[in-house]
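Ops channel
N.P.: pipeline sanity check, posting one input/output pair.
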């Protein structure tokens, strides 16, 4: 929402601090492979991550919106998004 970047540890849930790799599954879609769901099975929250290693021209604000199918998948799994995007989704 604030369009700000900051450093954060990998393999750590930003909501509850879980660090066990087996509780932090990742899900991607074939249609937009540089955006993924980083989930936490401990607190049932998720965030979407834009991977610049896969697409150096990615635009996180736009690509996050374009990957709405990942939100649908996550919600079908019983996960709750940690923070809504600019459209409130
Ligand atoms: Zn968590």
């Amino acid at each position: 929402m604030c369009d700000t970047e900051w450093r954060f540890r990998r393999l750590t849930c930003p909501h509850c601090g879980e660090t066990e790799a087996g509780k932090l599954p990742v899900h991607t879609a074939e249609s937009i492979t540089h955006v993924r769901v980083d989930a936490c099975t401990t607190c049932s929250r998720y965030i979407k991550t834009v991977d610049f290693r896969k697409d150096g021209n990615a635009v996180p604000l736009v690509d996050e919106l374009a990957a709405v199918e990942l939100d649908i998948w996550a919600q079908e799994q019983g996960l709750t998004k940690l923070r809504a995007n600019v459209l409130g989704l």
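N.P.: looks fine end to end. The pocket of zinc ion is lined by residues 13, 15-16, 18, 40, 42-43, 45 (CB under 6 Å).
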